[in-house]
């Protein structure tokens, strides 16, 4: 009996992907926002190893809630509305990393239960070579045209935050607001007639391969494709307008390695950490000017003037209701 217990313990230990001194981040996918470079820097600069994790925001929150009494993660990354919810649900705890005071008001919980680490602007990530000769679409309205049938993708807005951000952008583009999502529901039903592709998780590689020629996505992913991949890629900020959205992080409440988690968050908000995001075409949360060589690769400021900020707390309150409407009303 003693041998069987020892063998079982050894099997469990071997199966575990995390060592005692590692930290765990939920939703740190290497193909999203260049988390690959950030994880490498965390390993090199502060000697903490964090495994890749390909959850989306909704899956991250669900996992944190399921593990609330025995957390596995130390830190978590998600869209701002999910971060607000994590704080409200008690799975994120208060912590103010170095540099916290420089994050603008409205983009952090006053107690530090969540805080922005970088920004993205929602638009279209387009693989021009996969359009089959069709013009690069310039507007949300273009995507319902027959020439884009089967070419348009967006992440499931009832689960993935970027999918919900795309819904908010389309909703505002067609005259809605955070209290009225009727325009978004109509738009997604119109789009449904054009056979869209609706994955649940980040789909950068599927755009690069041409499987999804047009994806509702952030500028930073599109610029990464444009400047770092073989192929012809573009970022389009829709003619009707769009939204600029922060992504946030939290220290997990009662996580197994809180001191490691705090060191990770300190590094991410440090000058060196924030600079890594700019290399990935992201606007840093702290007011750091983009390097000139990076800024030159963005669309002109006149285009970005069409991207607006919203009341992110109200956006969070509306998220669940919109997700339910999307699942029940979009066919």
Automatic annotation (TrEMBL):
Residues 1-20 form the signal peptide. The keyword Signal applies. Transmembrane segments: none annotated. One of its GO terms (biological process) is thiamine transport. Keywords: Signal. One of its GO terms (molecular function) is thiamine binding. CDD domains: PBP2_Fbp_like_3. The keyword Signal applies. GO terms for cellular component: outer membrane-bounded periplasmic space. This is Putative 2-aminoethylphosphonate-binding periplasmic protein. The lineage of its organism: Bacteria, Pseudomonadati, Pseudomonadota, Alphaproteobacteria, Rhodobacterales.
